[in-house]
């Protein structure tokens, strides 16, 4: 990737597959750097492991595991001084402006279970929304925690697509008619209308971070 040096970039999901998002996992070596400027696509950066320094549109911050930054379109970014093996997950989406709304600002934040309300009255399920639920945003990124015994209350199917990565634990994911055992480090692309259901497995909670397109008319 131009401007991304001393790192390995795995492009997990991309438009070549028919997706409308890109998802990458970046593993940085010492001295690694991610330098660039967003253009038509906004980028969400989430630190999975390690730490590094971020300078986004002039704002500096050290980001450690569980912290993230949302970089809107047309902003400069620089990530540097990573600890060896730092891993960063990214979600990219071409931004669709909405008349009457301004483009969102840069936003820093972190994973925090205290900010994760219970999902659909089921106290084994918690979802933290990492981006504001506002019409200026056309993407959501959420962290979904399933405690032991937790499972989606129904088979979902919807127009929105998902890019997803497991951060902890293990689970069974049902996609259309196939059952997949999944665990920490695994990723899934769910195209629009893919039937989806999941249940946690094992003795610890399962946790995933996922992308979803939101708030725009279907084309
Ligand atoms: O937000 C969602 O659509 C979410 N409940 N889907 C999922 O976790 N597969
Ligand atoms: Mn869903």
From TrEMBL:
It comes from the Bacteria. InterPro entries: Cupin_2, RmlC-like_jellyroll, RmlC_Cupin_sf, UGHY, UGlyAH_cupin_C. Signal peptide: none annotated. Its EC number is 3.5.3.26. It is an enzyme of class 3 (hydrolase). Keywords: Hydrolase. One of its GO terms (molecular function) is ureidoglycine aminohydrolase activity. Pfam families: Cupin_2. Coiled coil: none annotated. Residues 26-85 form the Cupin type-2 domain. NCBIfam families: ura-cupin. PANTHER family: (S)-UREIDOGLYCINE AMINOHYDROLASE. This is (S)-ureidoglycine aminohydrolase. The lineage of its organism: Bacteria, Pseudomonadati, Bacteroidota, Cytophagia, Cytophagales. The gene is allE.
